Amino acid sequence: MTHPEPDPRRWRALAVCLIAGFMTLLDVSIVNVALPAMQRGVGASAAELSWVVSGYALTFGLVLVASGRLGDDRGRKKMFVIALALFTLTSAAAGIAPNAETLVAARLLQGAAGGMLNPQVIGFIQQLFQGRERGRAFGLFGAAIGISTAIGPLLGGLLLEWGGEADGWRWVFYVNVPIGVLALVLGARLLPRDTANEGERQPLDVVGALLLGGAVVALMVPLVLSEGDPASAPWWLLAVSAVLLVLFVFWERRARRAHGHPLVDFALLRTRSYALGSSLGLLYFAGFTAIFFVITLFLQNGRGYTPLQAGLALTPFALGSAVTSAIGGRLVSRLGKPLVVGGLLAVAVGLVAVDVVLRLDPQQVGWAIAGPLLVAGLGSGFVIAPNQTLALEEVPTREGGTAAGVLQTGQRVGSAIGISAVGAVFFGQLASTGGDWARAISLGLVGAVVFVVLALALGVVDLLADRRRARRSTPDSTPDSTPDSTPDSTDDATRTPVESPAR
Fold first, then answer.
1. Which residues contact 438 (CB under 8 A, 6 or more apart)?
2. Compositionally biased, Low complexity: which spans (predicted)?
């Protein structure tokens, strides 16, 4: 089978995608350090500040799958441009917000725009790159994820210092506007045109989108609201989420029989590499995101660090993640799953070392945790991008946006679960000990490590299962057999061939 000639502008197109993706993911963490300034600036209540942070994550996760399907069916470039324009406009609206209500509304719309944009980025990577190049591209995207999450507090602190006490927080949003405009201009020129089949009028599974969206909202609302007060969160919505998910599965099966074009093709979830990669990503993001949540709170509220100082203290993680994400993208085609398992082990070791160092109660906390955070960051770079590459390697290109939407929804749900669980432990310890920050951060880090270790255990079990299958199949193997073929993978005729990573 011959492959079409690669797009000569693919690396420049990737740069545009990475800029856009970086902005949307940066806005998950950059606002945290600006919350006190926002409270003073617009008189926001504690509940409204919670929605500034949590509302973004909520609407981001709400639209991921439906937006991925729209990009696959109606054109990724069209969806990318619309979403990026909306993200730029809502960033400006958040920056000029005269009151808390307007700010919350702008953040909800901004989150939805970010959720519309991100599946298109991964869809373009699937479309533009093959084999080892795809691994390198995902490595760069993984670097964008790791850096945006870890460096958000530092950039937020710098913007607050530069913008001044009164309106510095507004620049946390304004900074997206010139970058967004530049990305729009470059995207219009460099991104590949939508193909004819993408423009075909496939039936829209509106009911499926509403059922899945309702299930995601019902799941995430109690999780995000529990960050401040777990006892008051509407946990009954979890039952509603479960019911909606069951209805969604029944409806999708009906849609497949009726017109053959459901919102989510469940054949994706029967593809072993995709299902396991998505599950591992959910568990890892639960621990990964919670790390920055509790450490930032500890440094600013427990040790009196300024936003800029807290951001600088987390920079070693960002630097380590940036370096190994790029390297991991090159190595994943040769090392495969062992690379992810090794990265998870390094993250767990680094976080345990952070806990040990903090138990010693050093005078210069930021310097003391720099080394362990660097180790954890180096490991993280070998997890996010390689796992994403392995999860999507058997996904057909035409399903790339939908698969990315499901994958990223899992990551967002994982982040909400992690922050909710670790935050409950962290704040519960603070309340029960009358403000013992050292004990609270220790238990919070243990909670984050638990999620990372669960992801590590899943990776090890999967790796051992692969090796057992390989040993069983060796006597019957032929020169044409491929180690990645799985009996339950579907759509072999349309799957995009990629170079099989070593297992």
1. 302, 358, 359, 361
2. 475-488
